Automatic annotation (TrEMBL), chain A:
Species this protein is from: Candolleomyces aberdarensis
Pfam families registered for this protein in UniProt: Ribophorin_II_3rd, Ribophorin_II_C
One biological process term in Gene Ontology: protein N-linked glycosylation
Lineage: Eukaryota, Fungi, Dikarya, Basidiomycota, Agaricomycotina
Transmembrane intervals: 27-48, 204-227, 239-258, 265-284
Protein name: Ribophorin II
Topology class, membrane: Multi-pass membrane protein
Entry's family note: Belongs to the SWP1 family.
Residues in Ribophorin II C-terminal domain copies: 194-291
Keyword annotations of the record: Endoplasmic reticulum, Membrane, Signal, Transmembrane, Transmembrane helix
Automatic annotation (TrEMBL), chain B:
InterPro entries (UniProt xref): DAD/Ost2
This protein's UniProt keywords: Endoplasmic reticulum, Membrane, Transmembrane, Transmembrane helix
Similarity section: Belongs to the DAD/OST2 family.
Gene Ontology cellular component annotations, sorted alphabetically: oligosaccharyltransferase complex
Main location: endoplasmic reticulum
Keyword Transmembrane found: yes
The protein's assembly and partners: Component of the oligosaccharyltransferase (OST) complex.
Organism: Candolleomyces aberdarensis
Ranges annotated as spanning the membrane: 36-56, 62-80, 100-119
Name of the protein: Dolichyl-diphosphooligosaccharide--protein glycosyltransferase subunit OST2
GO biological process, one term: protein N-linked glycosylation
Localization annotation: Endoplasmic reticulum membrane
Pathway participation: Protein modification; protein glycosylation
Length: 293, 120
């Protein structure tokens, strides 16, 4: 405390201030110093007087007494009794804390169970764990020991959180799994299966079938050579432009397949279409005139 | 126009052979021209389909484009033939043969455009 007061004074002396302002600053820090003094003066320590624990079986015979560090094993019909008195360390007077808990903690699963302990106004506490009627606050147990600790909290005293001993209880049902538990952990990785790549068939078969597919052209040419009608008017000046524009359309479409893009082909196709309309009308009307003659 | 001959005297031959003979004698050359084209298209379509079924349909879009081209062209050519046939003149009063050919040409060009698009 005295060092703290000295620090405060050093702060003020660092500044070359006028005397009344310096006095005012000292007075400002004074209540803070008083408060700190009060807190450290009243911090007291609690302690336990005559702690005793007893394990007894169903008929009341004592099996174990006196606290020990090694794990305490409790059978299915036995009971554990813990008694102690909470006193102030300095004047040995009984204190009734605001909060007194016994905590059972399973380190492997992280489950815990907490039970408040009744403490009389004189500080005497009694805790009873009867396994023939297992209480609900016990966490799920396995063969791993539970760490039993005592937690005491009350104003004006330092809190206590003291490990007492390890407790081994009989197996219980495991903790129920929440239906949404799987959502909070990473899911198993999805393995997508893709359709296997399609492969090109055997080259020889491809060649054979290419030949077979081209064969109808020869059939067509052969048939046409037998029944070709006379193409007298094909190259007359009224009909030839129409044939030429039809041929140009086919060339345009082939070029589109090879290198053009859609916009280009539509543009050229539009222009060529206009041309074809005019040549077509001329050609077909001349043929119609010749037919009706 | 090609002349049509009188049918030959019926005999006890196979009806298919009779049909073939009648067809050969009575159909004008122009229609036979179109018929040859139709026969070619049918052959081509059957062969493409058989390849797809037997071997692979690997470039599926190519098969569809080729097959659709034969089928579509067949439909267009068949409609042209029926509209141009002089014996059907009463059926198609408002469609002259020239109009039919113009329709055929336009339809073919549009069909080719879509087939080339799909060919890939």
């Amino acid at each position: 405390m005295m060092s703290r007061d000295r620090e405060l004074h050093v702060d003020v002396d660092d500044f070359a201030l006028e005397k009344p302002v310096r006095l005012l600053k000292t007075l400002m820090y004074y209540p803070l110093a008083l408060l700190l003094l009060a807190v450290t003066a009243q911090a007291s320590v609690l302690t336990l007087k005559s702690p005793r624990f007893v394990v007894s079986d169903s008929t009341g015979n004592q099996l174990r007494a006196e606290p020990t560090a090694s794990p305490v094993k409790l059978g299915a019909r036995e009971s554990l009794k813990i008694t102690f008195q909470v006193v102030d360390k300095e004047d040995e007077k009984g204190v009734q804390p605001h909060q007194t808990f016994i905590r059972f903690y399973d380190e492997s699963t992280g489950e815990e169970g907490i039970q408040p302990v009744r403490v009389t106004p004189g500080g005497k506490a009694k805790f009873d764990l009867n396994l023939s009627k297992p209480p609900l606050y016990l966490p799920p147990t396995s063969d791993k020991p539970l760490k039993v600790s005592l937690i005491i909290g009350t104003p004006n005293y330092d809190p206590i959180s003291a490990q007492l001993f390890d407790l081994v209880l009989p197996w219980s049902q495991p903790a129920p799994v929440h239906p949404d538990e799987a959502v909070f952990h990473p899911r198993p990785e999805l393995q997508h299966t893709f359709r296997p790549e399609q492969k090109v068939p055997n080259k020889f078969i491809s060649l054979v079938f290419s030949g077979i597919a081209i064969a109808p052209w020869f059939v067509l040419l052969g048939l046409w050579s037998q029944v070709a009608p006379r193409a007298t008017g094909l190259f007359s000046p009224s009909i030839l432009p129409f044939i030429a524009s039809l041929g140009a359309f086919e060339v345009l479409l082939f070029t589109y397949w090879v290198k053009l893009r859609l916009g280009d082909v539509l543009l050229y196709g539009g222009i060529l279409g206009v041309v074809t309309v005019f040549t077509g009308r001329r050609a077909l009307s001349s043929i119609a005139a010749k037919r009706t003659q | 126009m090609a002349p049509t001959k009188a049918p030959a005297a019926p005999s006890s031959q196979n009806p298919v052979v009779l049909l073939w003979k009648a067809y050969n004698q009575q159909t004008p050359d122009r229609l036979k021209f179109i018929d040859a084209f139709l026969f070619f298209l049918m052959l081509s379509g059957i062969i493409q389909f058989a390849y797809c079924v037997l071997v692979t349909n690997y470039p599926y879009n190519a098969f569809l484009a080729g097959f659709a081209s034969t089928v579509g062209q067949f439909v267009l050519a068949a409609s042209l033939r029926s509209q141009v046939n002089p014996q059907n003149k009463d059926e198609f009063k408002e469609v002259s043969p020239e109009r039919a050919f113009a329709d055929f040409a336009l339809g073919s060009i549009v069909l080719h455009f879509f087939v080339y698009n799909f060919l890939g």
